[in-house]
Amino acid sequence: MTNKRENLVPDYRLILLTVAFLVFVYLISPILSPFLTAAVLSYICCPLVDKLSKVSVGRLSIGRGAASILVMTFLLGFILLLLLIVAPLLQNELMLLAERLPKFVILSKSILEPWLVNHLGISLEIDAPKIQQLLTDNWKSASNFVGEFLVSLSSHGLAVVAWLANLLLIPVVLFYLLRDWHYLENEIRALVPRSYLKNTTKIASEINQVLSEFLRGQLSVMVLMSIYYCLALWLAGLDLALPIGMITGLLGFVPYLGIGTGICLSLLAGVLQFSSLHQMLPLMIAFGIGQILEGFILTPWLVGDRIGLHPVIVLFALLACSQLLGFVGLLLALPISAATAIGLKHAKLHYFSTNLYLK
């Protein structure tokens, strides 16, 4: 009887250690970004490294170190290709925006000013040539961005060096995590108290299964929606179809951010490109069909209800983690949501078996 009561009493040493660990993590959060980014990327890429490391040609096998380098090279190439596609297009469209904005202002003035004068007695004092000159001057100064950036490096040298150090630290940490992932798993498992090992292993396995399925499904949805929006906006006649479509699809991992950003960018580009409102109707149709395709077909099929939390709770987790850890928090929000969902499920089952609930 005494042993059962002792087992029911919580171990306050573990609780204190957990609280101390969380406080420590919060205090060092400014330097955690490269490590957390590398950890998330290694978790996503680890299955691919596992498969590549088992590939062999004759008596020679690739090995985990070489497989890690291959996966990192592929990941870096994908990021560079994305930048090479999107950056020049955005630069060209910004130049086009600077050229067309004054014409749009003149057109708006010719339509809005008579209505405002007749109904509200307000006159728009807009000097289109001055706006054109302002844009031209600012665009010329923007062309000297590289020189100004180099000058700012000298005045903010330490901050730039720290930022570059954090950026270069990501691939280094990523390589070691990918190479030693299973070794680190075994080391962590060895530190868990034996009395908690079974439950801890079970919960960790459930979290891993839920999170891996969710990430695979979400990545598939992001890729497919990027392809859809690029094609749909191109068919709608939008010049910025490729960058806006890619941005809309790739930001889909954050609820409402992808579709909100895509609609805003498309409306802005459409207003400057098209001469009438009915020409923008295909853009809205493209986003409407995209939402139906994502919400009723792709997401239920590829993702489903993997995390098991209400979308509002997931959105709160995204905002809270981004507030604490910046962009890295967005990467960690989904793992935290998955762990929370599994933890709440086990806590609820334990609560239903306690005397507090049964009495």
Model description:
The protein has 359 residues and is mainly alpha-helical. The chain has a domain at 37-191. Helix content is 83%, strand content 1%. The protein is built from 15 helices and 2 strands. The chain has helices spanning 2-8, 12-27, 33-53, 63-119, 128-143, 145-155, 157-179, 181-191, 194-235, 241-250, 257-273, 281-303, 311-325, 327-352, 355-358; strands at 56-57, 60-61. A two-stranded antiparallel ribbon has the order 1-2. The longest helix has 57 residues, at 63-119. The protein is globular, with a radius of gyration of 27 Å. It starts with a helix and ends with a helix.
Which helices and strands appear, and what pairs or packs with what?
Elements (H helix, E strand, L loop, with lengths): L1 H7 L3 H16 L5 H21 L2 E2 L2 E2 L1 H57 L8 H16 L1 H11 L1 H23 L1 H11 L2 H42 L5 H10 L6 H17 L7 H23 L7 H15 L1 H26 L2 H4 L1
Antiparallel strand pairs: 1-2
Number of helices: 15
The first-to-last residue Cα distance is: 20 Å
Radius of gyration: 27 Å
Strand elements, count: 2
Give a quick precis of the structure:
By secondary structure, this protein is mainly α. It has a domain of 155 residues. It is built from 15 helices and two strands.
